[in-house]
Amino acid sequence: MPIRPAPDADLTACEFFAGGGLAGLGLSLDGAGFHTVLANDIDAAKARAFRANHPDTPLIHDDVWTVTPDQIPGAPDLCWASSPCQDVSLAGARGGLKAQRSGAFWGFWKLMQGLDAEGRAPPVIVLENVVGLLTSGEGQDFAAVCGAMAEAGYTVGALEIDAGLWLPQSRPRLFIVAMRGVEGPRLPAPTQPFHSSRLIAAWERLPEPVKTNWAWWRLAVPPRRNLDLATVLESDAPCFAPAETQALLAMLSPLHRARLEAIQASGERRVGAAFRRVRVKNGQKLQRLEIRFDGLAGCLRTPSGGSSRQYVVIVEGGRIAMRRLTGREAARLMGVSDAYRLPASESASLKLMGDAVAVPVVEALTRGLFLPALTGRQAEAAA
Ligand SMILES: C[S@@+](CC[C@H](N)C(=O)[O-])C[C@H]1O[C@@H](n2cnc3c(N)ncnc32)[C@H](O)[C@@H]1O
């Protein structure tokens, strides 16, 4: 792909590990934020979804290790990387960043170094990942990422943000934000909720030179969420036959069964979310159905195994109906509008959304952190 000049007027972003392009949706702030000038993803299904929704954005459908600086237009203001999380995920095996898929971060980083060598390094770099990155490889992965950024002259900081502050989905994620040549708003000391105790513990383990280049980025806490799981449901999605529902309910633990029975007895309409999990009791593996009725869905996951399927449980007038969460509901749980074109298959939609970043979280970072830093720089240049 040849070099293309980046548009002048906009703040520009490149989106790596772009998936369906949800980071770009958040960064764009509906046209008031960043203009994505290049995206990259290795996966064919993700590339199809990306192109269907962002037909004007150049996408390199290939391994990030094959992307070269000459394919990146102009000098991007921000580069975003949502590198694969499977190997550091608390839900999976702990291979750490050295494992094959998570190692893709270093392909991204090589590219950032290439841009730097040409004087085109972005002033803002963001790595989104699972919170497990704080502890994977006994903390060495987090230290390696932050260390590489600090060594390149960036001020580094991180935030642990749960999308549940905006959306009816519990989805804690780690955002490492590095800035160079621009000043983002910061706090004198770590502050809840975005500087969690596990983040502070990970920071304490960092080598001294990284700690001295560290910033506790400031981000406003949003007003209380007014969306509930019930508000994202599709009204016409078919429920399971009674026998299938009964088979699932038979997997409830006594505690979860008691909770469900109390709701049934109240006669109220309540919507819950449930996952199947394998639990070990007295040395034996048990299939359990775990239900929550706190108005939140559980964290969306990629539907690669039985335990990652999420169910919707509707209790009304003492009756219980169950069904799978739909792809459209998953998209709504990520803050994606219904105008977003989902793949035709439910499983591809669920995979797309299960891997993605929640749009309102990216919007909050854009408004609260990236734009103040970058527009401050523009104001200085104009003065
Ligand atoms: C956690 S998902 C990020 C999804 C994205 N943020 C979104 O909102 O849809 C990680 C993505 O990295 C892609 N990926 C994995 N290894 C890659 C590689 N070596 N080069 C480029 N992309 C890769 C996967 O296909 C996947 O879409």
From TrEMBL:
SUPFAM superfamilies: S-adenosyl-L-methionine-dependent methyltransferases (SSF53335)
Keyword line: Methyltransferase, Restriction system, S-adenosyl-L-methionine, Transferase
Transmembrane stretches, start-end: none
GO biological process: methylation
Top-level taxon of the source organism: Bacteria
InterPro entries in alphabetical order: C5-Methyltransferase, C5_MeTfrase, SAM-dependent_MTases_sf
Catalytic center residues: C85
Single GO MF descriptor: DNA (cytosine-5-)-methyltransferase activity
Enzyme class: transferase
EC number: 2.1.1.37
Catalyzed reactions per annotation: a 2'-deoxycytidine in DNA + S-adenosyl-L-methionine = a 5-methyl-2'-deoxycytidine in DNA + S-adenosyl-L-homocysteine + H(+)
Family per record: Belongs to the class I-like SAM-binding methyltransferase superfamily. C5-methyltransferase family.
PANTHER family named in the record: CYTOSINE-SPECIFIC METHYLTRANSFERASE, DNA (CYTOSINE-5)-METHYLTRANSFERASE 1
Protein name: DNA (cytosine-5-)-methyltransferase
Gene source species: Brevundimonas olei
Lineage of the organism: Bacteria, Pseudomonadati, Pseudomonadota, Alphaproteobacteria, Caulobacterales
